[in-house]
Amino acid sequence: MAVALGKRKRVESKAPASKRPAKKEEDEPSDSEDLRDAFRRAFEAKFKPLSGSKKEEKKAPEPAEAEERESEDDDWDGISEEDENSGNNNTVEVVEVTGPTRSERMSKAELKAFMSSKPPTAPTPRQSSNDNAGDKDDDADADALNLKNDLALQRLLKESHLLDASSSASLLAGPSGKNRHKATDLRIQALGSKGSILAQGKMPMAHRKGIKAKASEREEKRRREARENGIILERAKKEKVGEERKRERGVGGPGVGKFSGGK
Predict the structure, then answer these.
(1) Number of domains within the chain
(2) Nearest-CA neighbor of 165 among 178, 175, 180?
(3) Range of the domain at 54
(4) What is the mean pLDDT of the chain?
(5) How many CA atoms lie within 13 A of 236 on its CB side?
(6) What is the per-residue pLDDT across 201-242, written as a single tens digit (0 to 9) for each?
(7) Buried b or exposed e, range 1-16, using 16+ CB within 10 angstroms
(8) Which residue intervals are annotated with compositional bias (Basic residues) in the record (predicted)?
(9) Domain boundary among 182, 199, 216
């Protein structure tokens, strides 16, 4: 029988991998990462930073933090007695709030001033309604009393020349007799009377002349006594007698003309 001989497989001997190409392979990705970082920095300098770079930067320090936590756990020895004592000595702090629980509502006037565009005026202290009502009543009574006193003082000043200085009773009770009638006349004139009620417009001529003569006689006697006693009086008013009055004529009215030219 013929024996079929097959092809013998060739055993390829694999050469041990050298370290140099491995280093090249390791260097290649690092170079590519450096290039990417350079491109990324150039892109971020012109435009907004990339979102992927932030995540990588945040994830990078995780191993260091984990190592620090492990080192802290290894160094921890437990709770000491001093910590326990300090925890027992802690006391609860109580805070009491004494302020107003409910804020006071603004009045209508304050709200209107707050909402207006005008500058605010000086603030006025708020008062309760009862206090305001009592103050208003007191002010009204005081105003009425002051007005009454003012009227009495004005009347006293106007009628002081009618009082008799010799008796103190007249000063308290007021004028009496003829002076009382004169005082009444002054009060009526103060209320708006056009003339005096004591003025006698119509009387006989003899009576009028007698009254004027008596008045001038009294005035002359008063001045003579004052001159003898060295008292200086006011100047006497001289009445103008027989003054000629000019006739008033309207504009363009008839008048006496002048004769000229003999015609």
Answers:
(1) 3
(2) 175
(3) 23-62
(4) 73
(5) 9
(6) 788 999 999 999 999 999 999 999 999 999 998 888 877 776
(7) eeeeeeeeeeeeeeee
(8) 1-11
(9) 199
